[in-house]
Structure formats: structure tokens, C-alpha cells
Fold this sequence. Notes:
With 189 residues, this protein is mostly helical. It folds into two domains: 26-97; 118-189, Methane Monooxygenase Hydroxylase, Chain G, domain 1 (Up-down Bundle), CATH 1.20.58. It has eight helices and no strands. The protein has helices at 5-21, 29-47, 53-69, 74-93, 99-115, 120-139, 145-161, 166-186. The radius of gyration is 21 Å and the shape is globular. The chain starts with a helix and ends with a helix. Residues 1-22 have low confidence and may be disordered.
Amino acid sequence: MYRTPLALLLLSCVSYAWAQEKEDPASGVKEFKEALDYQSQGDSLRGQGKDPSEAYAKALAGYEKALSTNPSYAEAASKQALVYWSQGDWLRRQGKDPSEAYAKALAGYEKALSIDASYADALTGEAIVYSSQGLWLDGQGKDPSEAYAKAVAGYEKVLSIDPRNHMAAFNEASVYQWQGFWLDRHSKC
């Protein structure tokens, strides 16, 4: 059978694509995809004002499986941290203490950053957690300055890696605004 270079190229592309579709059990991709589905369900419930706890618990378990299969899966660690932040945000909006969930989120982002120190999603997520901590502290009548300072430092790091990251720039400006509101309410002038 005669094979032209074009036919060989097409065959190799099809073979490569087929091989990519097969999930390597050691990659943790299957568990990651399942966890993403549960996370999406939880986010949907949270957006509707319904308790997302059960869906988030399943998402966390899925990300944990992905990480146990592949400990260097930075995206799984970051997404797991995002679920913890989402749990904390749900609690905060319900008037409950989100501190434990936020601490777990920060630990997850630290894990992702220990795998890839310039992973922008993890850096952004970490800064968002500090922003949320500041809002929680402010709402409790406590000084949010330290949390806000960590948030700003995080957004600055994201912007040093990706100067066009509009979300980081907007969030950083919001933190400065919240800090200004805090100072206005608590200044002795």
C-alpha cells in the first residue's frame, strides 16, 4: 500500500489525538473532571441561594483523589482550594464564620504554588481569599488591614506575571476601596 507524506501526517495526527483522548489512570484527569462537575453543581446551588455543601464535599473528595493519584497536579490543588473558598464565601454570606474554610483554601493554594510558583490562577485565588478574610473581619468590627495587605501583595504578584490580568487589577482596586472605607469609619480625626 502506497502512503504519501500527507497521508502519513494525517495518520499520525489521528493516532496522536486518539492517544490523547485515552486518560492515563496515573494522571488524575478522570477524578479531576468528575470533581469539576460537582464543583459546578455546588456553584449553581450557591448562586440560587441553596446550600452547596453536599456537592462541594463530593468535589473536594474528587480533587483529593486526583491529587493522591498525581501529587504534582497543581490545577487540582488550586481547584480544591477554590471549593474551600466557595464554602467559606457561602458561610460568610450566611453570617457564619468562614475562617476554617478560608484557612483550608489558603493551604490548597500554597500547595498549588509549591508545585508551580507562577501559577496565576492559584496566586489570584490566594489573593481573593485574603480579600474575603478582610471583608469578614471588617464585618465583625475587626481590623482587616493585614488581610487586605496580603491581598494587595498577591494581586501585585499576579500583575507582575500578567500585566493584562484585568480581574486582578479590578480586585486590587476594590481592596484599596474597602481599606479606605475601613479607615474612614475608624479614623480618629
